[in-house]
Amino acid sequence: MEASAYKQLMKHHAGAPVVIATGGPGERTGLTATAFCSLSDSPPTVLICVNRSASAHPVIERTRAFSVNLLRDGQADIAARFAGMTGLKGEQRFEGGDWTVQQTGAPVMADALASLDCELLQAHDHGTHSVFIGLVREVHSDGGADPLIYFRGSFSALRERAPAACAA
């Protein structure tokens, strides 16, 4: 299967866009991704997949730290900025945002739906990407906000729906 056909197919998988951020002052960088999931709760670990050509990749390896910031409804502009859709790179992507630093030193979005500050435990290369496993050191969340969703190539809000009927 060709990569372009596979990418088109995967747009049918609705996902929660996250901003993965890393680096200290003057070298911060990040990307928008949907390849993020919980790996374990004991110890609390997450898994992210980052293209080895992404600017964040070598910084995550060197600093051994990253944050995962789940975006809320109304933050599609941030998702687009970190996805490279605006032409901004590196530190420019962080301008105008409310960023803090927690335990690992990675930049963390203060107004995200939820944020996880992670220490890199392991990296595994596969194809064009690396799978990074991170130990969650600190978390922040806003339980009242609605998530941003990525589906069929665009960002949108998750609308409240009537519960689905269950067959008995």
Structural write-up:
This protein has 168 residues and is mainly β. It has a single domain (17-154), classed as Pnp Oxidase, Chain A (Roll), CATH 2.30.110.10. 14% of the residues lie in helices and 42% in strands. The strands form three sheets. A seven-stranded antiparallel β-sheet has the order 2-1-5-8-9-4-3, sandwiched between helices. A two-stranded antiparallel sheet has the order 6-7. The chain is globular.
Question: How far is the N terminus from the C terminus?
Answer: 39 Å
Question: How can the largest sheet be summarized?
Answer: 7 strands, antiparallel
Task: Report the CATH topology name.
Answer: Pnp Oxidase, Chain A
- Find the count of extended strands (DSSP E, 2+ residues): 11
CATH class: Mainly Beta
The number of domains = 1
Instruction: Compute the CA-based radius of gyration.
Output: 16 Å
CATH superfamily: Electron Transport, Fmn-binding Protein, Chain A
Secondary structure category? mainly beta
Give the proportion of residues in helices: 10-25%
How many helical elements? 3
Strand content: 35-45%
SSE order: HEEEEHEHEEEEEE
